[in-house]
Input
Amino acid sequence: MKKNIDDFLDIVKQRNGNEPEFLQAVEEVAETVLPYIIEHDIYYGKNILLRMVEPERVISFRVCWVDDSGEIQVNRGYRVQMNSAIGPYKGGLRFHPSVNMSILKFLAFEQVFKNSLTTLQMGGGKGGSDFDPKGKSDNEIMRFCHAFMTELCRHIGPNTDVPAGDIGVGSREIGFLFGMYKKLRNEFTGVLTGKGLTWGGSLIRPEATGYGNVYFAQQMLTHNNDTIKGKKVVISGSGNVAQYAAEKVIQLGGTVLTLSDSSGYIYDSEGINRDKLDFVMNLKNVKRGRIKEYIDKYPDAVYKEGEKPWAVACDVAMPCATQNELNEDDAKILLKNGCICVSEGANMPSTKKAISQFHKAKILFAPGKASNAGGVATSGLEMTQNSLRYNWTRKEVDDKLKEIMSDIHESCIKYGKTNTDYIDYVKGANIAGFVKVADAMLAQGII
Ligand code: NDP
Ligand code: 2IT
Output
């Protein structure tokens, strides 16, 4: 078995040697999915995983725009259209200086499995730019988004590819992107999700990733006859996913101890309650400030510059910032301090060695492609509402989100069983995601 996996990974490495994040994502999937393929004749000998690791299409383009001082700026834009076997490409856009082909291919690859898990009909894709939104004026953001869409609009459409937000892309950016798409194509369609509520957006979409992650953590705990109520929760990040994960933890009776950004983290031993979270939401979403400003308002909290929150003792950890933000040493500290559950809000935030630590200790561990799937699932619900030209209520969407997270949990249990009571959610999510896409690819032939 090991030889099969090594041989497969050698081929992928030869083709994508300079893409470490992509190789990391593929390796994690191959280790659990290849054994399953070998045991099942319908998948064996058809190079099905080799077909899945090759994007159906990769688009890279120049984005020129003029900044507030009149200087011409040049950025690189991308869209990776990974797999459309079960539906139109679907996945977010990331604007961050670190964006490159490796990061977008890893995200697009993860998205294929995640979207399959949602039970909805969405293929996988991801895009973005090395544009850095930090410190830019609203007008600069608008000019960049408009310039980005002048090219992207040729490659997307409501039945082709439906982008949404990710790091650095929120409701403001989706608005500017949608405006330019509509002008160029002269169509008002559901080509993007995460839209404003008055122009085609869905209730609960802003909350969905964070809420979904907490629903998933709650499902895992319930399966172990436990609950999130009364638990101490450490969260990283302070963006969209972190904020709404914190909101749901508070609603369900847990205590949120930390939030962070790329400069450091804040620790509030009293717990970040509703009022304090409102302050953070205003600080991050309206003032676009830094998390360290929390201690100016709440001086009893502490700010640790340049550090991550994993050394704070907790029962549950939710990494909600970015890839590889939780390494082996962080995992060991979490375990030493008694952490019993890790539910990933971000995409691939735990390194491979960190995940091995969690598995070895047999704590509950949910990989992002299962636990953060609530965001894209609710994007799928936004697409459905756009097609129906009808809006569901907040409760209707939230109920569907809960049901989808519960279905994903069931799928993970079905495929993630081990020879003990322990559920391997990584194996479960990878195989369940794989089966649906692979079946569709086999049905559609070699294309
Ligand atoms: P936001 O841009 O709203 O927030 C990102 C947060 O993560 C910020 O606090 C940011 O800090 C921090 N962060 C970003 N990059 C780094 C870094 N290199 N090191 C440390 N901290 C960093 O993004 P989202 O909340 O939407 O996304 C967070 C994660 O969740 C990502 O992994 C994304 O792919 C994933 N995700 C998002 C979904 C969504 O619906 N939005 C759906 C599913 C997954 P700073 O301000 O300092 O950069
Ligand atoms: O990683 C993700 O699932 C997202 N950024 C959300 C994608 C979407 O299409 O809503």
User: Anything to note?
Assistant: The chain is about 50% helix and 15% strand. The chain has a mean pLDDT of 98.
